[in-house]
Design goal:
289 residues; Endonuclease, Chain A; 2 domains; six-stranded mixed sheet; 46% helix; elongated
Length: 289
Amino acid sequence: MGFRTGISERQRRFGEELRRVRDAAGLSALEVGEALGVKGPNISHTEAGRLGLNLERLNAWLDLCKVTDPEYRAGLISMSESSGRGWWTEFKHDVIPPALDLAEVEASATAVDTYETLLIPGLLQTKAYSEVINGYNERKVEFRRQRQGLLKGTNALPLRAVIHEAALHMMYGGPTVMRDQLTHLIEMSQLPNVTIQILPFDCTTYASTDTPFMLARGPHARLHTVLLEHPHGSTFVGDPESVAAFDQKFDRVRGLALPPLSVSTPTPSATYRDSMGLIQHIRYKVQGR
């Protein structure tokens, strides 16, 4: 089998996990190669995502490294056997590779947590808002719409979103677009699998993160993935220490944010503040523009 010419995030992460369990077992690439009946360099290429690994050799690798957790093993097997094809495949000429990787990560996730500062999270955007953000590129807008399909249906993806109040004041597309976007957030919050909170301007405690991020939870805690987006591209993070740090950051911003959007929860008092009240207040101001 020849080397892959393009390495997906799933393939890269699979190789990274194999290297991680090998290092934890204190084995060299040469030792694993000898046990599997392949040359040492092939082990390095596999860990770099350039080569695949059949089920027999994968199980032998995990046995050799004493990986016994059944859920973790099943997750690695699923990553290894996946074709990488899905609805996103038809967009391979329309969006950048990291966007395709994100769609694949979301498709295999058990839940997603996201924190945004200046934008409405992609999974919660209206078509009109998405058109503005994507420069009115029809295929990119459709790609985002299909990503949003994960939030509905029998196996709807659980989503927890914390949005900084700043994102609600950005008039992307103008008042009408933003008013409809705010209304859409309220509507989406009524889905049983969606929780939305707003981090207000007047929060007096530093949230310890200024970076928007998404935490996609995998079938095992060791397979969670963090996505960081910045002007120079997208970065996927999978090492346990970094993922744990972002998990803690998300818990922190959730704790600092206002109570979740809810159309059914009664207001305890006239001075009570929640995400619903703040969004309604901003929507009223936008409507007057």
